[in-house]
Amino acid sequence: MRIALSRRGDYAIRAMLALAEHEAPGADGLLSVRLIAERTRIPAGFAAHVLTDLVRSGLVRGSAGRAGGYRLAAPAASISLLRVVEAAEGRVIATRCVLRGSPCDPDGRCVVHDVIARTTGAAAAELARTSLADLVVTAGS
Prior knowledge:
This protein is mainly alpha-helical. The protein has one domain: Arc Repressor Mutant, subunit A, CATH 1.10.10. It is elongated and about 55 Å long.
């Protein structure tokens, strides 16, 4: 089984990690889209769209203007990877049948429904347990 993020999900995680690293002691101010794009190797045009998603989800605060930019809306330790992924990708828990490709039907579930639901639930739980701060510490080690 392959678990994969879309490009938007990948970029959202990279942008949030850049903001979390910038939150560290000694860093002050906002990060511009240009700086986030440079630090994360995200195309600048796409970075702006991803940051809009993150602002809309309440994970990031943005400030317009020449001195504007972005910062985390809460401490990195309180933002789970699940929240970031779902801000970009939508709900992690699958609502489509893996065998039929259509929405799951509560009255006629396929034979693998419960196994897949437990698997995606376990993946979501692991994402929920992991904060941005955990990842910044890991990356810096």
